[in-house]
Amino acid sequence: xxxxxxxxEKLWQILKSYHLVVNEIKIYQGxxxxxxxxxxxxxxxxxxxxxxxxxxxxxxxxDTIVNALYSEQMEIEEKLNDAKARKAAIEELCSLCSEExxxxxxxxxxxGVKWYDMETKYHYNxxxxxxxxxxxxxxxxxxxxxxxxxxxxxxxRRIMTGE
Length: 163
Description:
This protein has 163 residues and is an all-alpha fold. The protein has one domain. It has helices at residues 3-16, 18-41, 61-95, 99-110, 115-122, 126-146, 150-161; strands at 49-50, 55-56. Helix 3 (61-95) crosses helix 7 (150-161) and helix 4 (99-110) crosses helix 6 (126-146). The longest helix is centred in the middle third of the chain and has 35 residues, at 61-95.
């Protein structure tokens, strides 16, 4: 295996992780909404002003609970935003591919279509579909190595590192 194949395999694994990232977003969104409901069900702090930077005033026990919920909610929000950024990066990777490969990627990785159903739909065997996707990924890796445009390098760096 050469370096291009190794980097392409990393991109393949990133595409495979799409459903996990989508599920992660659903979980974090549910947690975030749950914290929001808890916060709204408790009376808003009266003696304390809470914002993302500081708490002022003398907290009551209820204020302390609300502030703890806010703090946990902010941590969940950070994780939620990170997962959303990773999802967007994977979708961006797909957009760098040819139209044909985009359709294959969307079906296989985004929609979870089985290989057999794709073979029937496109009249290609699984190996051909996989090779066409993989060839696009190799092309993207080569663009990263040889393209002097910073946009391609920036996109791939974000996709590969999850930044």
